[in-house]
Amino acid sequence: MAGITTLGQFIIEKQADFSYAKGELSRLLRDIGIASKIVNREVNKAGLVDILGDAGTTNVQGEDQKKLDMYANEQFISALTSGGECCIVVTEEEDEFVPIDSPVSKNAKYIVCIDPLDGSSNIDVNVAVGTIFSIYRRKSVDGCATITDILQKGTQQVAAGYVIYGSSTMLVYTTGNGVNGFTLDPSIGEFCLSHPNMKVPEDGIIYSINEGNYVHFPEGVKKYIKYAQVEDLSTRRPYTSRYIGSMVGDIHRNLIKGGIYMYPTTASSPNGKLRLLYECNPMAFIIEQAGGVASDGLNRILDMQPKELHQRTSIFIGSPKMVKKAEEFMAEFSPVKSLSTDEIVEEKLEQLGVVGGID
Ligand code: AHM
Ligand code: MG
């Protein structure tokens, strides 16, 4: 089709960017694209069929699972299983990692970390939700991959992306050579290149945070919010507050318009709410590739060494000028990261020379 580049064509064209690529990563991205179309179909008709509401179970983090969360989880695992390029899936919906136990997949090179349906509390009210994914190359050479293959820093990601199921459905991804966005054309059932080489504006006027948690925020965040609300025409303040409560939607908007998204520590989430492996790392990779910044307020997200599958972190992400300003407030007013009780005990044991801390 003249004038249109589909996701499939684009992935194949870009395969040459990878010196080691033999097409596996391209096939993996294609499989994720196909599964997201199936999920999109169900999200679009969620109001029509009996898949709204709680499934009656909770995930490892004690959160209610929605039926569509589980449906999306099954679709992505199934696509990654039949594709044969992925040896392990880490998903928000499963306590343990999911080894893809087939003769082909066991030796596959890639690990996928995924939040199959993020922001799912928005489904019932017809607000944008998303899928977030991150792809790593395993360290071990063959046989079953292990936890060490999974717990890699975000800097090791070979690809990351998200799908936003919104007023239109888009897939945005990076393989470390910029960020490209594809809009699903429902009439032909294809993601078509609509946002080539996406760049986050260097500065913006939107700040996105759940301000209902204000009293529990670190002092640095409180001070930044007050800064955002003070009038100063030279820096286009007061800023505009926009918060959907759907990370993909909030970050996608800020990527296009410029802005900062923050989910800091709170009383109920002393380590932050969002998960490093399948929410923060992929979003940080995409935003950095688009020219933005992502940190926990003090340290770069992509440099964090994950210690567990469902590890959480606070996050400040978006336009570089805005994130750096928020970091200045954090450095001045909240320079020390709050630690969980386990981390405090672990640090103490490490100081005492008890190797490995606690389990
Ligand atoms: P989820 O993975 O359980 O859907 O939670 C992640 C979501 C993000 O998309 C969103 O930004 C955040 O949780 C909203 O949390 P809150 O309602 O505390 O503001
Ligand atoms: Mg999520």
TrEMBL record:
Binds 2 magnesium ions per subunit. One of its GO terms (molecular function) is magnesium ion binding. Substrate binds at residues 118-121, 210, 243, 273. Mg(2+) 2 binds at residues 115, 118, 279. It is found in: Cytoplasm. The keyword Translocase does not apply. Pfam families: FBPase, FBPase_C. HAMAP family: FBPase_class1 (MF_01855). Belongs to the FBPase class 1 family. Its cofactor is Mg(2+). CDD domains: FBPase (cd00354). Homotetramer. This is Fructose-1,6-bisphosphatase class 1. The lineage of its organism: Bacteria, Pseudomonadati, Bacteroidota, Sphingobacteriia, Sphingobacteriales. NCBIfam families: PRK09293.1-1, PRK09293.1-3. Keywords: Carbohydrate metabolism, Cytoplasm, Hydrolase, Magnesium, Metal-binding. GO terms for cellular component: cytosol. PANTHER family: FRUCTOSE-1,6-BISPHOSPHATASE-RELATED, SEDOHEPTULOSE-1,7-BISPHOSPHATASE, CHLOROPLASTIC. Residues 6-196 form the Fructose-1-6-bisphosphatase class I N-terminal domain. The gene is fbp. GO terms for biological process: fructose 1,6-bisphosphate metabolic process; fructose 6-phosphate metabolic process; fructose metabolic process; gluconeogenesis; sucrose biosynthetic process. It catalyses: beta-D-fructose 1,6-bisphosphate + H2O = beta-D-fructose 6-phosphate + phosphate. Mg(2+) 1 binds at residues 92, 115, 117. Pathway: Carbohydrate biosynthesis; Calvin cycle. InterPro entries: FBPase_C_dom, FBPase_class-1, FBPase_N, FBPtase, Fructose_bisphosphatase_AS.
